[in-house]
């Protein structure tokens, strides 16, 4: 299990590849996580940069702003990101109505082999700490009796 915290600037985690992953197939530029939250199946996709690649471990860094917003437990698939670049008109698979960017900023990413499937605990995003009570009369007390 890996732990990701949205309130941290950078999260560094180590991935141990599955036995079926062959790093010799293509160059590893980055890691692309794809998966969902276990509670309500909230889907998420985010990238991580390569920090260290000492076989067999792959150590990646994820920025806090890339971490999914709902806290909780996730099941994530880590894929090899093999190519990135500017999108080329008429070859991009996105439907124009679904694209959330201007064409000048449009990019593409090619996913490679599945590296591994991991469980992740995400925190620091939507759980705010209670620092003060709403009203002044919320001082609770209880008494226990023996007997």
In terms of topology, how is this protein built?
Blueprint: E1 2-5, E2 10-15, E3 30-37, E4 43-54, E5 57-63, E6 72-86, E7 107-123
Parallel strand pairs: 1-7
Antiparallel strand pairs: 2-5, 3-4, 3-6, 4-5, 6-7
Description:
This protein is mostly beta strands. The protein has a single domain (about 1-125), classed as Immunoglobulin-like (Sandwich). It has strands at about 1-5, 10-15, 30-35, 45-55, 55-65, 70-85, 105-125. A seven-stranded mixed sheet has the order 1-7-6-3-4-5-2, with no helix packed on it. Strand 3 (about 30-35) and strand 4 (about 45-55) form a beta hairpin. The chain is elongated. The N and C termini lie far apart (about 45 Å). The mean pLDDT is about 80.
Summed up, what is this model?
The protein has 147 residues and is mainly β. The protein has strands at 2-5, 10-15, 30-37, 43-54, 57-63, 72-86, 107-123. It has one domain (2-123): Immunoglobulin-like.
Which CATH-level-2 architecture?
A: Sandwich
Q: Which class best fits the helix and strand makeup?
A: mainly beta
The largest beta-sheet arranges its strands as: 1-7-6-3-4-5-2
What kind of sheet is the major sheet? 7 strands, mixed
Number of helices: 0
Proportion of strand residues: over 45%
- Report Rg: 21 Å
Low-confidence runs of at least 5 consecutive residues = none
Helix content: under 10%
Cα distance spanning the termini: 47 Å
Sequence of secondary-structure elements:
EEEEEEE
Q: Do you know the CATH topology? A: Immunoglobulin-like
* Count of domains: 1
CATH class designation? Mainly Beta
Global outline: elongated
What is the residue-mean pLDDT, rounded to a whole number? 80
Overall strand count: 7
């Amino acid at each position: 299990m890996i732990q990701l915290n949205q309130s941290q600037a950078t999260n560094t985690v180590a991935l141990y590849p599955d036995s079926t992953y062959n790093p010799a197939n293509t160059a590893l530029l980055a890691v692309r996580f794809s998966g969902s939250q276990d509670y309500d199946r909230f889907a998420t996709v985010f990238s991580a940069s390569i920090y260290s690649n000492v076989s067999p471990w792959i150590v990646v860094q994820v920025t806090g702003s890339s971490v999914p917003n709902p806290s909780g437990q996730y099941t994530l698939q880590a894929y090899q990101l093999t190519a990135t670049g500017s999108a080329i008109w008429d070859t991009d698979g996105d439907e124009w109505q679904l694209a959330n960017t201007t064409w000048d900023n449009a990019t593409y990413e090619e996913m490679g082999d599945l590296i591994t499937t991991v469980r992740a605990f995400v925190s620091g995003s939507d759980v705010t700490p209670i620092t003060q009570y709403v009203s002044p009369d919320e001082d609770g007390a209880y008494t226990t009796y023996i007997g």
